[in-house]
């Protein structure tokens, strides 16, 4: 769907996942640091099951939308010896791989002995396939159109590489936050593409060959990422303060502080050492 | 052999290896998890010897086929001051490096102290050399021909990098399954190239400059990979169920479940912890 | 600011940071080796707080300079339906990301449980954004201008990758010294760009299309790096000798030598082994 | 020196180092496996000192040759407002970085606390600088000349990446053998370039624009690498058999076999396990 909605729909999916991850991972991280690893594992595993189901549902909606919009291919691939609506078929393919990744997420939940890391590998592959299709997708288009999509590719391939590293480094909070930030970036950038290429309600068209516009769009991409990083930071802080207040109420304050503030412990140790030195 | 058979032959080799790996690695993985590491090592080492011998035999067949087909170079490199059938020589070179990798596999079996990882390094190099030759091979060809071969390069270089990582991370099931999936993809893609560039029995020729065809081929490549992933998944499941049934028959059920379902153990532990908390 | 000062200002910032790092990291390294890890941690943490504050101050100066120089955009982005001074806005964006990295450095100091490695990730992102903007920045310029900026990109992306690796390998002295050397290289190269593109006081202009000039500039870039490496080596040696003299004065000579010269210990062990063998 | 000797000289340097490494590293590897790590360390450290001195001597010869050949720049960089013999200056720069790497090797030997890995980082940088200069060096040349040099770049950048990994993985025999093979490849390829671009004694010139020649050269590069791998394998085997014979003479046969043949031990263990199972 080369129109506003066709970009807004996947953009919204990525935004939802990015924002959700930016809350989930800090939550998991603080939980692990406070209560040890094994306790809340089950809850998080269930969350990931739900995530998998959501992925499958979202991608199913996406595929249906691409196939059965009025000007869609309606599951026909060839007609009169020519291809039918290849663009929609390509988008369906992208959704399909995200769906596969969702299915692996679901299978990982059940005691089927799915190897650790396969869920992240399948996600990395889905992201890579998206990038691959986009890469060959935008050739023979006006410069601004090409440029705005190739900026998207930076977020896409960056995300794919980062998730690939997560196959080997599980539960690495920095990688998880990086992934969240790239998902939000992708989501908001899809919306930006929609606004630039298919201006809403009579807004003036962008000149697709103007070099100034291309320069602005590059910078605009960086601003999107800056906003994405700030959102990640705010969510992280919110989670931190919620967790802290909850813990304080739960009265096990002393133990908590010891675990929460390794810095203070170091300070104390340093002071102790200094004191013992002076003696 | 720039014809149907010249692509179908290597395609079949890759398919055979990819399918075989997609059974072997899950088998090895479950065996290790169930019975500990040392027990079945010898059997797997023997399998790898056989694999090495197969590689040498296959590549020998490949080289002979490239050299001694009726229009082959028959081991002549220069004739009347010009090169003879360089295409066939290049293919022979590709086979040769896979042969070298097979020889290293064989040497690894014998107690010669071949360093761990050398077998995978030599395989990675063989794959890389294949990619390198293909890369310079397809210049000056029609767009569709170039594009269909450059998609192959994604599978080739992806495989090479993945095997290179296996040099450092031995017996990593996710990497091994990834490698299997790329081998199947390569195999089936060689067949696809054969069908597109050398249509069998009077099928219509593809228009090699049509942009729509190029877009379809890109998507088709993704579908091949999707099928490859599904084959991998099915083989994995089959192995899992076979292993499980065998084990159940062998009556050591309780121990087995404990080892097979770490998830259930976690559940039990969580329940235990919850109970002890409530007290 | 596409003039001499606009390149000299960031160049000076990078030089200051590069030189400072080339002293700080050896200092930290020797301290850790001599006294164990925990002792001076607090001091180094405070240094990093100061570093973060410096980054924020420097980038604030940079942004103000870019915005409010006489021919700057004065915070206006759009005027009469066209973009205002996008070059200055791009430079402001680069400074902004370094500022973000500074803020993360400051937050890392306080007991807020900021995950380890986030400070380096944010620095790597700032460097990457700088490279991204430069990459699209220099299109449609004369060959020498393009070339001199694309050499800068080698230092920029090299630095970004190296810092990205530091996210996973903390306190790796070789990586830290590599980063310092690239920062010095970037700083001195900014000055070189300033001298080449905006010759001072009546110096003759460079012919921007001469192939010989491009060849010289490539080599000149290598010389800059050689000088950068030599500066790093000298600073390392100076730190080493200062630390050693201080330690000698502190009278714990015997313990020191044992810790400082693992080589001598190996020699002694080897001699011991040889002796026990001969018996 | 854009002539036969100017390529044969560095080619010989690389060949000497590659061949030497292909003997040194297996020797060190077997020694470590047989006698434990600490014993022969001193001997190997001394070898590396000698290697460093050799590097410095070789690069000094190289720089002198480039500068003071009859048509060299004789240390003049600018004359009559134009650059003097930039080609020779670029080659001198390449040698200089290898010299720097040699100096670090020498410093590493002495008890100066040079961080582990710095010697390999400096070597990786020297190789990278060589690649960088070559990359910009060959623009505006006939196709065959460009192609033959860009194949060299594969060996160069491959080597640089591999040595960069060695910074983190010390004494990894597979990486060391890979590096040796790339050094031999680079050496023999320099000789090949010399023979192709500057044919000796009246041999016919190569047609530098013929596509067939370019195809042959690509394949020829692979053959060089195959020969390089075979040389590595032979040297490895020779070292293995020499070490084995020496050890057998030294009468500690039983212990030796135990250490040398972990495979046999596994077989024995497997047999033992099987036996205990049957009871």
UniProtKB/TrEMBL annotation, chains A, B, C, D:
The chain crosses the membrane at residues 6-27, 47-65, 95-114, 121-138, 150-169, 181-201, 213-238. GO terms for cellular component: membrane. Keywords: Membrane, Transmembrane, Transmembrane helix. It is found in: Membrane. It comes from the Eukaryota. InterPro entries: DUF716 (IPR006904), TMEM45 (IPR042127). It is a multi-pass membrane protein. The keyword Amino-acid biosynthesis does not apply. Belongs to the TMEM45 family. This is Transmembrane protein 45B.
């Amino acid at each position: 769907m080369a129109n506003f909605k066709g970009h807004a729909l996947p953009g919204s999916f990525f935004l939802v996942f990015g924002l959700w991850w930016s809350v989930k991972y800090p939550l998991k991280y603080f939980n692990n640091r406070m209560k040890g690893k094994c306790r809340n594992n089950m809850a998080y595993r269930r969350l990931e099951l739900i995530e998998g189901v959501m992925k499958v549902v979202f991608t199913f909606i996406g595929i249906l939308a691409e196939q059965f919009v009025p000007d869609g291919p309606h599951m026909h691939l060839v007609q009169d010896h020519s291809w039918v609506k290849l663009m929609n078929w390509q988008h369906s393919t992208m959704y399909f791989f995200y769906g596969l990744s969702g299915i692996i997420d679901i299978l990982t939940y059940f005691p089927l002995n799915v190897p650790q890391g396969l869920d992240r590998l399948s996600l990395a592959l889905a992201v890579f396939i998206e990038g691959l299709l986009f890469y060959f997708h935008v050739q023979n288009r006006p410069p601004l159109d090409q440029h705005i999509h190739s900026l998207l590719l930076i977020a896409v391939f960056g995300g794919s590489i980062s998730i690939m590293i997560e196959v080997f480094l599980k539960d690495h909070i920095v990688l998880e936050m990086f992934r969240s930030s790239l998902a939000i970036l992708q989501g908001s950038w899809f919306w930006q593409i929609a606004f630039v290429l298919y201006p809403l309600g009579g807004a003036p068209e962008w000149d697709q060959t103007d070099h100034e516009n291309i320069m602005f769009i590059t910078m605009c991409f960086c601003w999107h990422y800056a906003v994405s990083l700030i959102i990640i930071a705010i969510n992280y802080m919110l989670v931190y303060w919620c967790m802290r207040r909850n813990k304080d109420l739960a009265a096990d304050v002393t133990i908590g502080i010891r675990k929460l503030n390794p810095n203070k412990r170091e300070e104390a140790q340093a002071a102790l050492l200094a004191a013992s030195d002076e003696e």
